[in-house]
Design goal:
Elements lengths: L6 H8 L5 H7 L31 E4 L12 E4 L3 E2 L11 E4 L2 E3 L1 H6 L5 H8 L4 E4 L11 E3 L6 E2 L12 E3 L6 E2 L12 E3 L6 E2 L11 E3 L6 E2 L12 E3 L6 E2 L12 E3 L6 E2 L21 E2 L12 E3 L5 E2 L12 E3 L2 E2 L2 E2 L8 H4 L13 H21 L25 E4 L18 E7 L17 E7 L3
Parallel strand pairs: 1-2, 2-4, 3-5, 5-6, 6-8, 7-9, 9-11, 10-12, 12-14, 13-15, 15-17, 16-18, 18-19, 19-21, 20-22, 25-26
Antiparallel strand pairs: 23-24, 26-27
Length: about 450
């Protein structure tokens, strides 16, 4: 027997509509649904009048741009709003806030001096977001993120020298950038199974010593654990497929790393200056090791990579303690070229290898001439006047100004796999007469170009 919707149940369905046209069409289906919209005492979608819902008693505000209806005195605010803007009471209006963010600015503006005051405020279940430095004014050593909090903002615990233990809740999906950076006394972090992402510099310069990442984490951004001088051991989740740029840069005391079995890439500078690292098993699944990935790992004993692995220049500079070194070869010849600074490492194990020539000095003059030609062309175009001051001729990608937005690359440019991890403002590149370009960036892009004379492309961030 076919069941039919009555007006009550149809109202439940209608409240999930997104567009005004759907609400209007719903009352035209049949006569028994003609009064369904009159049953609503609130607005399921943003409105500017009571034309659609005639009997609104409580208006729901979904965005900052929503207009308050003059005939309504009760409001529910769903968009994110700072705590300091929720403390003012109105004699004529009743306002309920559903998404409050608290940060250091709110703590200061509301003159919150004692941690007990903050603890009472955090009991408010409408507080969904913890903002920048909200805890830094208090001598708190242990902190448990409340269960109703669903998001941490960047720099939330940054530079907090008091914290030594933080417990995250099961509602959080990611650890934001610079979340625990410079938390010099942080020793213990409890990861929930809900966390899937660790963003850039999340733990950089913090005091944590040992970490085991849960299996839920599959994405670790660049420099996530850079400059963690106390870090000794880390076990990385099997779900992680890539060790990003500079992830463990300058972790001097890191001695034990367990890489995931299905790892695909180890990007540039990933383990640079990990001076105490002795043993690391690189899975056979790894097909790419970036430039200077193990630079200055002077105590590492064994490197064994698969025969299909592409290795960037300078990956093993100053790895002088190697006793086992197996890299891709074909008929006794190394497949990947090496840099001059790696010769002393390779020549102990191999005799037939190609040393990459450094042509940057020879091409400087030619590059500058091409740059001047392009600059003149740009100046002739009125649409490109805003690019002035943001251009640079590159011979070493590592020397970018971090606010650079425009990059011309010429034939003399030798770094085929540059590290853009610290240059988030780049939006455009010009490539001239270049036969092969391969780059890995924080935008997760790999591009191969075959012999073009003038290429312009925009990077979508």
């Amino acid at each position: 027997m076919v069941s039919k919707l009555d007006a009550f149940n149809f109202q439940i369905v209608v409240q999930h509509f997104y567009f005004e046209e759907d609400f209007i069409n719903s009352v035209l289906i049949c006569k028994k649904f003609s009064c369904v919209l009159d049953r609503f005492r609130y607005n399921p979608i943003p409105v500017t009048t009571t034309k659609l819902f005639h009997y609104i008693e409580t208006q729901h505000l979904y965005t900052k741009n929503d207009c308050e209806l003059p005939s309504v005195n009760n409001f529910v605010v769903w968009y994110k709003i700072p705590y300091s803007q929720t403390t003012t009471k109105s004699e004529y209006k009743s306002i309920t806030f559903e998404s409050i963010k608290i940060s250091c600015e709110d703590v200061n503006s509301e003159n919150i001096k004692k941690y007990e005051q903050l603890k009472n405020i955090l009991k408010n279940t409408a507080i969904k977001t913890l903002g920048k430095h909200f805890l830094n004014n208090f001598d708190v050593t242990k902190f448990v993120v409340p269960n109703h909090v669903t998001k941490l903002k960047h720099h939330v615990f940054d530079n907090n020298s008091h914290l030594d233990c933080v417990t995250l809740n099961e509602k959080l999906l990611s650890i934001p950038r610079f979340c625990f950076s410079y938390c010099s006394n942080l020793k213990t972090i409890t990861f929930p199974s809900s966390v899937t992402h660790i963003m850039a510099n999340a733990f950089s310069n913090c005091g944590i010593e040992r970490i085991t990442l849960p299996s839920s984490i599959y994405f670790i951004k660049n420099s996530a654990f850079a400059d963690c001088q106390q870090l000794k051991e880390i076990v990385i989740s099997d779900a992680v497929k890539c060790i990003d740029f500079s992830t463990f840069y300058n972790c001097h005391n890191l001695s034990k790393v367990v890489l995931p079995n299905n790892l695909k890439e180890i990007k540039g500078n990933a383990f640079e200056d990990c001076k105490l690292l002795e043993h690391i098993r690189i899975p056979k699944s790894v097909h790419f090791i970036g430039e200077m990935a193990f630079l200055n790992c002077e105590n590492i004993k064994e490197i064994v990579v698969s025969q299909i692995c592409s290795i960037g220049l300078g990956a093993f500079i100053n790895c002088t303690s190697l006793t086992t070194f197996i890299v891709p070869t074909f008929n006794g010849n190394l497949i990947n070229p090496i840099s001059k600074k790696e010769v002393d490492v390779y020549e102990r194990f191999y005799t037939n290898f190609e040393v990459e020539k450094n042509e940057s000095d020879e091409s400087d003059e030619e590059s500058e001439e091409e740059y001047d030609d392009m600059d003149n062309e740009e100046n002739d175009n009125p649409n490109n006047q805003n690019n002035k001051g943001n251009k640079i001729v590159l011979n070493n990608i590592q020397k970018f100004d971090k606010y650079l937005t425009f990059i011309p690359i010429f034939r003399g440019f030798q770094n085929h796999n540059p590290n853009y991890s610290r240059h988030h403002f780049i939006t455009k590149m010009f490539i001239f007469s270049y036969k092969f370009v391969r780059y890995n960036t924080t935008f997760s892009a790999i591009i191969i170009l075959e012999t073009y004379t003038h290429i312009v492309f925009d990077l979508i961030i």
